[in-house]
Design goal:
- The complex is a heterodimer of chains A (659) and B (201).
- In chain A, helix 4 packs parallel to helix 6, helix 6 packs antiparallel against helix 7 and helix 14 packs antiparallel against helix 15.
- Chain A has a two-stranded antiparallel sheet with strand order 1-2.
- Chain A contains 20 helices and 2 strands.
- In chain A, 53% of the residues are buried.
- Chain B starts with 15 loop residues before the first helix and ends with a helix.
- Chain B has one domain: Up-down Bundle (Four Helix Bundle (Hemerythrin (Met), subunit A)), CATH 1.20.120.80.
- Helices cover 80% and strands 0% of the residues of chain B.
- Chain B is elongated, with a radius of gyration of 19 Å.
- Chains A and B meet through helix 6, helix 7, helix 8 and helix 19 of A and helix 1 and helix 5 of B.
């Protein structure tokens, strides 16, 4: 309750003041525009209350792109600060806040929503289903993630941002050393978003297990479906650990318990263990779906079946098991015994084996293929060498004895950016270019796409390659400045210049989205890439019921074989049945709002008010319990008309985009 | 989503959506196992760090814990009978045993709150030491689950009153049964690793 009202808004920093005004103006502008163009009703019925997996996927992607801008600005500010020695652009406190929010936002509110968004859009289509297993739960997952993201983001204008790193190690993150409320935002906002993610995991496990179309056995699933399935299992197995860790953090900070404190018998290293017990599997949660997307994209544009399908599946299962057995490698230097360090050294290195198998499988898939160099394929090609640099430096870091040299230096920072950017961001871009036509009915411009690609990849390498050498020279991470005598200046400056090129690449993507939305060709047919999996077997953009009649599958790359064997027959009237779909619901967005409100109150440690607001959560649960809405049926006539429309035009006068 | 009904199966398994809900709940219980396992792990690490405060044997009252255990285990048994009556389509019996279950669950909660108040009275609060922090949060999480379960079951009973026994209400009750048995299993671990182990140490 010790919050002073005059400290409610963050004041005294011109940058933040400008953002506060900017945010206020943007919000007023958005509300005014919605009212002026009378779009409230459209927004509410088509998007905010939707339970359609495709629209939820698109909302996730939109949120991920917006958060990418926020996290990217954080990154640029850091690079601007360290470009020259003794810079005074940011002070130490502000720098701490910026690297903390950069890390959290990029992992949890960029990588996760973009991947889960693509999973949401693509997986039900790939397995030939009409939605996920629990459509309303899916909407709830999105709104909780969104709510958590918003709560986390307002921290920099209201109350102050967390400043203890994205890992928030104790004792630094505890009340004794971080007395403000900044770290409460971390604990509460991630708790809310994490609950959403956990439900996504459960949803997709059941969806993949129970909703595959006829004939699609587990070993005939497209690789993106496989990796999403395994990822969902890792989510279910690891997110509850984070839930507990964050809850204990909240107890320590708000209710004065002694889990991670120095006094009262608490143990700060317990936090590090719990955090990484979740945090390391989290790395694979973001990287596995990305691997799956690459597999599908590479086999499409190499025009060959994926090489070594079985070994791919075995590899992802092995990676998922090993992901749970390596967490100690994040703190080799914190005084474990030699035996413990050796064990975790070996398990960490072992991950290189299945990952290596996958890299070779991709290479062999491309071997002797007639490769089409589309933008999506370029991202997939760039992934291989860049990711290998990240992987090999990872093996260097895995050697516990050598890690004493690398630990907490920019070498480590360079390593994980070389893993996460080529391993997650490149595939996400590839996936966006690849599936964009399926989502919106037009393609992203390939020419602007190539600008995006080259600027981003060059900028990325120029930014992060120097950091390996800076790290080996002893430049520590999370230091807001350095003296000229260190000699870090030139490489730091190169790295800063690289980050500007990187940002220009991202700007090219944003411009591409804008340009393509306005000018791109709408007549592209349902299969512009000559692709292989079931999502391309239906209309573009996909009709709300996905498939008029559920496809029958006999092989891997089902759609490819249907095309090759001329099995695609015109739809006959008696094949069509009424389709049952779930109704829209207001409960998920209501839950997002009420979680946001009670979370906000809890951040400020107004516990009684938070508890009262939390009653609204239980009210929402009760409403849901009494909600016996049975959904609605799409009538035969409507289906016939929709199907005729796209099938008649299909592939007539369509430009071939992969020639 | 399919509305097809397979009448050969028990009521709660008859539709595809029901089967998916039940599988989904099993997976949710998997997540709950991880959650409680983490809390047990935390208790295992911090359980002997007293910071000058009381230890387990200074505060535990064996008799009260035995009563709690008896109440909760019995409630799991009555829950089983309730599902058995549901399978026999005996709504009256099903509701009656459900009420017994909730009464026993309520009794358990009453005893647990009394136990906590007793500890606080003795000066053993969750701010006292790492042992008590981990003890209260582990037990409290279980107690919170029981509380939510009671509220949930009351909503279910209203729906069964309103709608009778349909595949949907049967599925909801069945899932609640899974949840309730799960809480019982967690209690057995608490009883063993917190109370019994604490008393012999």
């Amino acid at each position: 309750m010790g919050i002073k009202w005059d400290e409610f808004f963050v004041t005294g920093d011109p940058l933040i003041f400008a953002s506060q005004i900017g945010i206020a103006l943007t919000m007023i502008g958005a509300l005014a525009a919605l009212t002026y163009f009378k779009k409230w009703n459209y927004l509410w019925t088509e998007w905010l209350t939707t339970v359609d997996h495709k629209k939820i996927g698109i909302m996730y992607i939109l949120m991920g792109v917006l958060m990418f801008v926020r996290g990217g600005i954080d990154g640029l500010m850091m690079k601007g600060q360290t470009a020259v020695p003794e810079n005074e652009f940011l002070n130490a406190q502000h720098y701490n806040e910026v690297f903390t929010t950069h890390g959290v936002i990029m992992i949890l509110f960029v990588a996760m929503p973009l991947l889960i968004g693509l999973m949401n859009f693509v997986i039900p289509l790939q397995i030939g289903a009409r939605d996920v297993a629990f459509p309303q739960l899916n909407a709830l997952s999105f709104w909780l993630t969104f709510s958590g993201a918003m709560l986390f983001n307002i921290s920099f204008i209201i109350g102050g941002s967390p400043d203890a790193g994205w890992t928030s190690y104790f004792p630094l993150a505890g009340k004794e050393f971080s007395p403000g409320i900044g770290n409460n935002f971390y604990a509460v906002a991630l708790q809310i978003a994490g609950a959403g993610t956990l439900m996504t995991g459960i949803n997709f496990v059941v969806t993949v297990l129970k909703m595959r179309t006829k004939g699609m056995t587990l070993m005939k699933m497209p690789m993106f479906t496989w990796t999403s399935f395994i990822t969902s299992i890792i989510i279910v197995a690891s997110f509850p650990i984070f839930t507990v860790a964050l809850a204990l953090m909240t107890f320590d900070r708000t209710f004065g318990t002694h889990f991670f404190t120095i006094s009262g018998g608490g143990m700060d290293m317990l936090w590090a263990n719990l955090f990484w017990l979740w945090g390391h599997p989290e790395v694979y949660i973001v990287v596995l779906p990305a691997f799956g997307m690459l597999s599908d994209i590479i086999s499409t544009f190499a025009r060959k079946t994926l090489y070594g399908y079985k070994s791919m599946v075995i590899s992802i299962v092995m990676i998922s098991v090993l992901s749970m057995l390596v967490w100690v490698h994040h703190f080799f230097t914190m005084g474990n015994s030699a035996g413990v360090n050796s064990f975790f050294s070996i398990t960490t290195m072992a991950i290189a084996i299945p990952t290596g198998v996958k890299v070779f499988n991709w290479l062999f898939t491309m071997r002797k293929g007639r490769i089409k160099f589309t933008t999506a394929m370029l991202w997939s090609l760039a992934f291989v060498p860049n990711f290998v640099i990240g992987g090999v430096t990872g093996v260097m870091l895995a050697m516990a004895a050598a890690d004493y040299q690398y630990h907490n230096t920019l070498f480590l920072v360079a390593h994980f950016h070389y893993v996460l950017i080529p391993g997650v961001v490149f595939p996400i871009f590839a996936g966006l270019y690849f599936w964009w036509p399926k989502m919106f009915g037009y393609m992203l411009n390939e020419r602007i796409g190539k600008w995006h690609f080259w600027l981003f990849v060059i900028g990325f390498n120029v930014t992060f390659m120097p950091m390996f050498f800076l790290g080996l020279d002893g430049a520590v991470r999370r230091a807001y400045t350095y003296s000229a005598e260190t000699g870090f200046g030139p490489l730091m400056m190169i790295s800063a210049v690289g980050s500007v090129i990187l940002a220009a690449g991202f700007a090219a993507l944003v411009y591409n989205i804008y340009w393509s939305a306005r000018h791109a060709d709408r007549n592209i047919g349902n299969d512009p890439w000559d692709a292989r999996t079931l999502e391309w077997a239906t209309a573009t953009p996909v009709q709300h019921y996905n498939f008029a009649s559920l496809p029958d599958v006999s092989k891997i790359d089902a759609f490819w074989h249907m095309k090759k064997n001329n099995e695609i027959q015109p739809l006959t009237e008696d094949e069509i049945e009424e389709i049952h779909l779930p109704s829209n619901t207001w409960i998920p967005i209501y839950m997002g709002v009420i979680f946001g409100i009670s979370g906000f109150l809890l951040v400020f440690e107004w516990t009684i008010a938070a508890a009262i607001a939390a009653l609204g959560i239980f009210a929402g649960l009760a409403f849901r319990s009494f909600d016996y809405d049975e959904g609605f049926h799409v009538h035969k006539d409507e289906i016939l008309e929709t199907e005729r429309k796209w099938r008649k035009g299909a592939n007539k006068g369509v430009k071939n985009h992969v020639s | 989503m399919s509305a097809k009904v397979n009448a050969a199966l028990p009521l709660e398994y008859q539709t595809e959506q029901n089967r998916m809900n039940i599988l989904g709940f099993w997976i949710f219980l998997g997540a709950e196992i991880v959650l409680f396992a983490t809390l047990f792990g935390v208790y295992g690490v911090l359980g002997e760090r007293y910071a000058g405060g009381p230890a387990q044997k200074d505060i535990f009252v064996v008799k009260d814990v035995m009563i709690q255990t008896f109440l909760l285990l019995t409630s799991s048994f009555t829950m089983g009978i309730s599902i058995y009556e549901m399978r026999r389509s005996n709504i009256k019996g099903m509701l009656m045993w459900l009420v017994f279950t909730l009464l026993l669950g309520g009794g358990f909660l009453f005893m647990e709150v009394r136990e906590f108040m007793h500890y606080v009275h003795e000066g053993a609060t969750m701010q006292t030491s790492a042992f008590l922090s981990s003890f209260f949060v582990l037990l409290g999480t279980h107690g919170l689950h029981v509380t939510i379960g009671i509220g949930w079951a009351i909503l279910l009973m209203i729906q069964i009153f309103q709608r009778g026994l349909t595949p949907v209400t049967a599925r909801k009750t069945f899932i609640f049964g899974l949840y309730w048995h799960f809480l019982d299993v967690v209690w057995i671990f608490i009883f063993t690793f917190v109370y019994l182990a604490g008393l012999v140490m």
